[in-house]
Every structure is written in structure tokens, then in C-alpha cells.
Amino acid sequence: MLQGEVRVPLATFETPLWPSTNRGALVSRMTAGIEVVVVDDRMTRSVLVQGPSAEYIAKVASKLKEQKSALVAVVAASSRFATLEDWHVQMVGNLLYIRFEMTTGDASGHNMTTKAADALLEWILKNHPDLEYVSVSGNYCTDKKVSAVNGILGRGKYVIAEILIPIDVCKRYLKSTPEKIVNLHIKKNLIGTILAGGIRTANAHFANMLLGIYLATGQDAANIIEGSQGIVHAEIRNQDLYFSVTLPNVIVGTMGNGKDLNFVKENLALLGCIEPANSMHNSRRLAAIIGATVLCGELSLLAAQTNPGELMQSHLRLERLKADTA
After folding, report:
1. Can you say how many angstroms the Cα of residue 42 is from the centroid of all Cα atoms in its chain?
2. Which tens digits make up the pLDDT trace of 193-223?
3. Confidence at residue 308, expressed as pLDDT on a 0 to 100 scale
4. Residue 158, phi then psi, degrees to nearest 5
């Protein structure tokens, strides 16, 4: 659970995103605060091999379970920070997809898991000589694509942020009511997303806040594709509003590519995510802050959309003000 107040940098060209997310943050300060839990943490890479028959690859998949200690050692030898946690398999004809899951310290882990996957492939092919290499990435990972598997098995940090907002705070600062917000969430986020054919997602605009923080903290921005596949849950508790966001695929790190840029280092320091190094604490703290920020932005937008015209009026007011003062 994250404790304390944090100033969050957002890199965005969408002018209203700043004041809107800030309104959600203001609401949080009028309550007991936002509670955030990082439920799980693992990066994935799926390798793809093929055998002479379905029977053969099924036997290989079963045998790998008995060889776990050897596979763990292979990953440990490939990196100081990577640890093999688990894997899942899928078989299609004579094709064997193996989705390896690893913890990667404070790094997001893209390159670390790929390097480990290369080593694992070499070991598997050597110990199962009738297998043939197909690819170090079989799309069962799944990296930067919409999928169901990431939400089910997790990829990156699995983050849940929640808040309880008194009805009077809701009315005063959000200009709405718990009933209106819950009702809109059901009809927009849930039913609307079902009609649209959304995959394991039910939110208004998680991607906006994710992109803003990803760019400000040197992350791989393309990971907002799976990162934005998250779910809002809202309900009324004794007239007050319980509001939560669940993001099972927050892929972020505090070390690695992009983290040596001066503005990135400054922003990570601002967020308290620079030490102690390599402990996983920094990246998990960053993921928790991201979850809280997504909650703030999501809450504010949904509240605005309960009132006819408010969303467009705010865009016109803020964008026109910016143009007039340029």
C-alpha cells in the first residue's frame, strides 16, 4: 500500500487532462485517500517451437514441468535480476507456445526477458532435439497488442487503486452524485464496452493518464495498448461512492532504456522512485502512483460526463484560453 502525497508529472498535449486529473486528486485529499495495492508483478515472453507431432510436443510440455529447477538456473545465469516464476503453454497442432513469466527487478523487463528467453530456447532445443526453433516471440506474450491472456495471467504490475468518497464531497467537488456516477459507469463503461466488443476492459480513458506518465518517466509508450485494458468498479456504500480502477498490465520500470535522460531522472526523483536501486520497490511504487493517477483522471471524467455539456465546455474553455494567450 502506498502512503503519502505525491506530485505527479504528466506529459500531454491534451490541455484539459491536467486540471481534470487534478480535480480527482483534490477529491482524494478531501477523503481518507486512495489506497493502492500491487497484487502481482511479472514480465512475460512467449517462445515458439515445433515438433514432429502433437503427441511429441505434449510430452515435451509435460517434461518441462519436471525440469523447472534447470530452467530457473538458465534464467538466473542470463541476468542478475531476472527470476523465472512460472510458465504456461498452448498447443496448436505440432506448435508449442511457452509463455515464460519472470520478475525483473526495477526494470520493466522487455529486453531482460527476451535475453532469458533466448537462453531458455537454447536449453530446450538442446535437451529436446526433435524440436525446431520458430521464434523467440510467439505473440502469446502478448506485447503491445490487445488480448485476453494478459488480463487473465498478468503482464507487468497488476495494480488496484480504490477510494471511498463521501456524498457531500462528491456533490461539492465533482458536481455530481454517487448514484449518477455509478449509473453512468454501468451504462457507459460496462454496457457500452460490451456493445463495442471490448476485450477485458471497461473504462472511459485509462490510456490518457497512462500515456502522460509513461512519457514523463521514460517508459515504452506503446505499452499503453495492453495497459489501458483495465476495469472500473463503482458502487454506493451508505450513500457514499466507492470507486476503483484495476489495471492488470502496468508495464513500467525505473531503470533501463530511457531512464538516463535528465528530465526522466528528475521526474522519477520527484515521485520517490530512484532508491534503493534494483529492489523492485521503485518500479512497484511507480506502478502504484500510476494506478492512483488513473483513478483520479477516470473519476473526474466520469463525473463530468454525468452533466450535459460539461465535457465539451471544459475543452472549449481551456483550449480557447490557451490559444488566446499564445
Report:
1. 11
2. 999 999 999 999 999 999 999 999 999 999 9
3. 81
4. -95, 110
* Selected catalytic residue, list 85, 118, 220, 310: 220
260 labelled catalytic: no
Parallel, antiparallel or unpaired: strands 156-165 and 35-50: antiparallel
pLDDT digits (tens, 9 = 90+) for 286-309: 999 999 999 999 999 999 999 986
Known catalytic residue at 118 = no
Q: Which domains does the chain have, with CATH numbers?
A: 17-40+157-324 (3.90.770.10), 43-135 (3.30.70.420)
Q: Which of 14, 40, 162, 240 is catalytic?
A: 14
* pLDDT at residue number 325: 54
Please answer whether residues 230 and 200 qualify as being in contact, where contact means their C-beta atoms are separated by less than 8 angstroms.
no
Per DSSP, which regions of 51-168 are E strands? 83-92, 95-103, 132-135, 156-165
Known catalytic membership, residue 175: no
List Cβ neighbours of 154 (8 Å cut-off, separation of 6 or more).
40, 42, 101, 248, 249
User: pLDDT-derived band of residue 315, with 50, 70 and 90 as boundaries?
Assistant: low
Name the active-site residue from 88, 115, 144, 233.
144
The pTM assigned to this predicted structure is 0.93
Cα 82 from Cα 150, distance rounded (Å): 19
User: Which letter does DSSP use for residue 98 in this model?
Assistant: E
Task: For residue 281, indicate whether it is catalytic.
Answer: no
